[in-house]
Amino acid sequence: MRAFLLSRLSQSLVLLVIVSIIGFTILNLIPGGPMAQYGLDPGMTADDLERLKEQLGLNRPIWAQYLDWAWRLVQGDWGHSFRDGAPVVSVIGRHVFATLLLMGSSTVIAIALGTWIGIRGATHRYSGFDYVATIGAMVALSIPTFWFGLVGIYVFSLQLGWLPAGNMYTIGDGSVLNYLHHLILPSIVLALVHVAIWSRYMRTATLDVISQEFVKTARAKGLSERRILMKHVVGNALLPMITLAGMQLPSLLTGALVTETVFTWPGMGRLFLDSLGYSDYPVVMGLLMFSAILVIAGNLIADIVIAIVDPRIRLA
Amino acid sequence: MVASIQAVPPHEAALSVRGLTVSLPKGMERTNAVQDISFDLERGQILCVIGESGSGKSVTANAIMGLLSKVIRVASGAIHLDGTNIVGMPTEKLRDLRGRVVSMIFQDPLSALNPLMTVGAQITEVMAAHGVGTPESRRARAIELLAEVGLPDPELMYHQYPFRLSGGQRQRVMIAMALTLEPTILIADEPTTALDVTTQAQILKLIRDIQRRKGMSVMFITHDFGVVAEIADSVVVMEKGRLVEQGSAEQVLKSPRHPYTRRLIAAVPHLTGKDRPPLKTASEAPILKVEGLVKTYRSGSALFGSQRIVPAVREVSFDLAPGRTLGVVGESGSGKSSLGRLLIKLMDSDGGRIVFEGRDIAQLSEPKFRTLRPQIQMIFQDPFASLNPRSTIGQILTVGPVAHGMPYAKAREEARALLAHVGLDAGAFGRYPHEFSGGQRQRIGIARALMFKPKLLVADEAVSALDVSIQAQILKLLDQVQRETGVSMIFITHDLRVASQISDEIAVMQKGRIVEHGPPSQIFLNPQSAYTRELVAAIPGEQPGAARSVAANG
To answer: Could you tell me the pTM of the whole model?
Structure first.
């Protein structure tokens, strides 16, 4: 187990280095760059620009800039925003809670609902429920998230007036209830596609387990169908789903990017888009690294959880 | 359901089946899986139900357990379990009978246990489901049961997960589980088919001992007449859903009345201590010479100190003359399949020489070996998995030779000729694998290997997945092919009876080593090593050297 963790951690480190190199390179290939923003200011002279460029270290070759950035990162210095000079860590820190709140609640909805739909679809195969769930999943998968967001806002905020159309809380009202009220619509919208994916996989996994011999053994022992489902089927069916949960994380992150924009949710997704618009390289790179760590950590946690719950791995 | 008013037989057998018909959904090859069968399982007896695949024997067992899938249903008839007719019984009442009055054990002990639950939890669950005992008493009973089925260290076993146990141990756990509530009837569905021969002998003995000790009634489903001879009191023979013969074991084995039974018994490969008459060949120089062959499996990582090293093949040496067959026998994990894979270079060896026609192929790189590959061919175990379902038989047969430079027209001609040769009609050329039965597919597999005019055939468990009657035909075909083409053969099998039928020489493998090597007469009549003696003694229904017990007059 320890050997496994060590090797996975070293792999993750290599992965992070590669991600950072690719991110840095692409960022610098984009035309424009930070100087273009300052150049729009009529008060700026060419000399000023040149001096600024030198101050920010942008006049050096890309590899030197990268090494400099990477070296500081290793020391714990994520750099400062080009926009307002604030440390990148604190800029991200201001937005991270919002995103994690949204992703966390979406994940809970997706797993709970997806698991239930999947199991029911498998135990009541080819029933009306199964057909509706199958078609529903296809619809949720084919329609883009932002459209669901817009329809949701139109129906529940504009027409019915039940839910707020955007933001994380009403200014002046920071109560938990107020947060939850704002959370409902975006988290459901973000969860929809994941409910669809999760329920399909869960249905297949459950069908797989149901056809296994040990389920027949359980019946031959005289167990009730309910107990067979709870004790023998669900546990075994959830096992492959843990890996899936780890792999879903990246798409949840990108989904959050869109959802946050639609609902003016003050999270990392919106910060990323804004920073990209301003060519705020340190913040963009910081976000990139943060997301990469999150995704790698998600997969690592999934592997560890499997190793803990599956005795074949835990005790091997 | 019609039969609930039918009279219970006066002497009241433990299990009594009357006029049972189980229908299949429309569009299947026949309308009924089981057609109007009647038999009794007397109290305290072992009844063997024997038949080939598709005979309906497993469907019968599942019907008795009330475990038929929804699409297959009992159309008519009655099943009396301990006097109660279960046909048409409400699900909840039926559930109560399962595990309490009637228990079942299955063929594959690897998949019959839940991998995520401990052995103990799976046994105590039976008692919990029927509301028997307290957690403490259930635990004590489970440990008692584990001891009863002969598992070592029951206290420890209680907390083990199934993956830690061997196949035989898992089957013992299954038996312990089935015995938990001391049911009247135990149904065993091919419980030893997936096990090694020595393990099979132990499990058969265990079932018989327990049956005698507890006076239990056992319905034992099998396809193996050797097993029938070992344990049966009475026998039911099934063919294509019909019951064709029933009687005492003695009567059915010694003087079978129905032609199907006679055919089945005749087809049972039985141990022969006679050596094959050697084939006359031009040269006696060995076509294959294996010297000190070694293969070690490594898994995990050496860097992080978690490496596992399993020696699969250790210092194996033998010679094979042209036109001769070497049978390689051994139990699972003996290294016999690894040896086969090394010989056809599906896998690289770690040491030693494989001299094929004077040339060491062990160290040859894949591109250099490619020109030799047509001369060494393989016949695989699973005729269902080894043929590409998307290719026609013609494509399967011709693709290899064409890749090795044969013009397509010539390949097609030869393929048609070979199909006829292995006993298939020429129309097979344009058809797909799913249109053929298991035996026919194995014929196709043999034709595929022969397309290359090989000098050496490696057959890995080539008949193990087949019914005995088909098995006999394929063995005959292989023998005929060898006599006509002079091909040398390495025949890998776990079944000593099969090996004795086709081999000129037999190598017995244990833990990667050849422990004994000699002609069948030596191996079966005068074994030199203790392990060979143990293997031979474990063969069900056979007393080598003595008068033949099974199929003596078949």
So the answer is: 0.80
